[in-house]
Amino acid sequence: MNDDMWDSAPEGQDKTSFGDIDAEKVLAATAMARPDVVDELAMQGFDPADFTRDQYRWVWYAVEELRASFKGGEIRYIAVDRQLQAWKADGRIPTVPLNQDQLTELYAHAQHGSADWYAARITEKAVARRLAAVGVDAELRARSATFNPDEDVAVIQAALDGVVRTSTEDETRLVGTLLEDVLTEATTPPTNDNRIPTGFTDLDSLLAGGLAPGQLIVIGARPAMGKTTAALGFARAAAIQHGIPTLFESLEMSATELGRSIVSAEARVALHHMKLGIATDDDIQRIARRTPDIAAAPLYINDGATLSVPMLRARVRNLVRTAGLRLVIVDYLQLMQAPKAESRQVAVSEMSRQLKLLAKEFQITVVVLAQLNRGPEQRQEKVPQVSDLRESGSIEQDADIVVLLHRPDAYEKESPRAGEADFIVGKHRGGPTATITTAFQGHYARFVDMANT
After folding, report:
1. What are 302's strand-pairing partners?
2. What is the pTM of this model?
3. Percent of the chain clearing pLDDT 90 (strictly above)
C-alpha cells in the first residue's frame, strides 16, 4: 500500500507524526458502512483533503460519488471498487487505489458510532501539519536575503489564519426561529454600541443610526473634492467624539499632515496658519482646549508607503484583540498594493471583495476611499454617479453603502451654492438613498453638519 501523504511533512520531520493512519482507516471504512456520515461530517466542517493516505481519501470520494445512486444503507466494497477502477481508467486518480481485497479488509474496520471522534483526530493532525509547514516557510523567509518585514510577516500571518479552518457547520434555520431576533431589533433603537456615528445628523438618520458592523462603505470622488477630509470627519466623530477605536490607513498623506488637519478641524484653527507656523495666541488657546480630547482618542494612524489586504488584515486582527477596534478607514483603494491578477480590474475587484470579507469576519466597519473616473466632468451638471467608480464595477457590488462627494463650487467658482457640499448616498443596501447637504470649510479641513433635524 502506498504510504505517501497528501500533504508532505516539513523537511526533517517524520511524516507519520502528522497523520493518524488508524483514524483514517476507520473513517474510510465507516463511510462505506454508513454513507450518511459523509454528509454529517461535511456539515461539521470536515475536509477529506485532511486524509494523509491517498487511498483512504479516494474511498471517501467514491462514497460521495455513489451516494446519489444509493438511496439508503451501506455501500459495499464492490461498488466502491468499480468506481475507483473507473476513475483510474480515466486517469483521475494520481495513485494506485485500494483493490477489492484491500477494500474488503478495510470494510471490517467500520465503527458506526464514533465517526465524529475519528474525524476530529484527522483534523487535529492536519492542523499540526499545516502549522509546521508555516513554521518552515517562516524560517525560509526570515533567512532570505530578500526578506521584507512588511510583506513576509503579513504573508505568514495570513498563512497562520488558514491553519485552523473555520467551521462550516450548517446554519440553515427555519424562518420562525428568526422572529425573536427580528422583533428585538425592531423595538430596540440603535446605540453607539452597534452603530458608529458619522458626525452628520441626517446621514446617521438615513443609515439607521450610523455605520454598522460588517459593512463596507465606499466614499468616491474626483481628486481635490475632499475625500480625505470627509474620511477624517468620520474618524473624528467616531474616535474623538464617541471614543470608538478607529484605524486610519493613509497612503497619500503623512501622519503629520493628518494630525494637523485633525487639530485644525477640532480646534477651528486655520490650516494655513498651522502650515506656515503663524498660529496666534488665540489659535494656541483653542488648540489647548481641544488637546485633552484629541490626545485621549483611540485613533490609530498608519502612513506606511505600502498597504496590501494581508498587511491590513494582520493589523486589524491585532487591534481588534488589543484595542477593540471597530472602524477602519483606508485612503484610498487604488493606491493599495494589488494582488497579482490578469488585469488591473480583476486585481481591484479582488481587493474590494477581500475588504468586504474583512469587515464581515471581524464584525467591524470598513470605510474605503475610491477615485472616480472622469464621468462627472463630462456631464453638464458635473454630479457624480455610482457607475463612475474607477476600474471596477465590483466595488459597487461589494459595497453596502456608496457615498459620492460633490462640491458645486469646485467646478463653478461663482456657484450660488458656494461653500456647500453634497454627500450623495448612491447605494444603500437595505435602505433608502438620498443626498445630504453639508458645509465645506476647507480652511478648517472639515465638512460641517447642516441638518435641520
Report:
1. 249
2. 0.68
3. 15
